[in-house]
Specification:
Alpha-Beta Plaits; about 200 residues; 3-stranded antiparallel sheet; (apollo) hypothetical protein; 2 domains; 5 helices
Length: about 200
């Protein structure tokens, strides 16, 4: 009887360990999936708020943006460019432009050039005017092509930043960062829970 109890106890203990291992593996799956998805997108750009026209040439628009911000991107560096269907059909914003460049290096160079251009021309940031489109000028945004999970986190960070008076929210290499002001360090936001804990700690300090 005692031997049987010990055997059952050992079986239960083994099952518990197997269960813990499985739970740990399941928790890690979303992170692994995000990593794979990020790697697939590492040469991609998304361009938002470019007005739509029936006769538009998206490659020409992309090279015009590159020329404006002094980024050396030509037709040969563009593997694919297209409009993407809206997630919200009720939105009056134009469909996003998706572009796949030749390499992550070309993508990063383009992003850096856009950031430098906007910083140096704070009153004349990249807009439809630079693309030769009709007035009034409307801002054009060039950014990384983020996986849905990172987009969600970025949106949550922007809401928190506005509510808690953080001045800067940015995404670099698919990572979301917060900064309270020009003099404070950048804080890496790993997930929503991390975002909540950082805001709480900022209040305590």
């Amino acid at each position: 009887m005692k031997a049987e109890l010990q055997e059952n106890s050992a079986i239960i203990s083994g099952l518990q360990k197997d269960n813990e291992t499985l739970q740990s593996s399941v928790k890690a799956l979303p992170q692994r999936f995000n990593l794979v998805e990020q790697n697939i997108r590492e040469s991609n750009l998304e361009i938002n708020c470019v007005p739509e026209h029936k006769t538009e040439n998206l490659s020409t628009i992309l090279t015009q943006i590159a020329k404006t911000v002094d980024s050396h991107i030509g037709d040969g560096d563009i593997h694919h460019v297209t409009r993407v269907a809206k997630l919200n059909n009720d939105s009056d914003r134009p469909r996003m432009v998706f572009a796949k460049l030749r390499s992550p290096r070309h993508r990063d160079a383009m992003l850096a050039a856009v950031a430098k251009f906007n910083k140096s021309k704070s009153k004349e940031k990249l807009s439809t005017q630079h693309l030769g489109m009709a007035d009034p000028p409307k801002p054009v945004f060039v950014s990384e092509h983020l996986p849905p999970a990172i987009k969600f986190l970025h949106a949550a960070a922007r809401l928190k930043a506005k509510k808690e008076d953080f001045k800067f929210v940015c995404v670099r290499n698919r990572r979301v960062f917060l900064r309270r002001n020009e003099y404070s360090p950048a804080i890496f936001i790993r997930n929503v829970e991390c975002l909540d804990s950082i805001i709480s700690s900022q209040h305590r300090s």
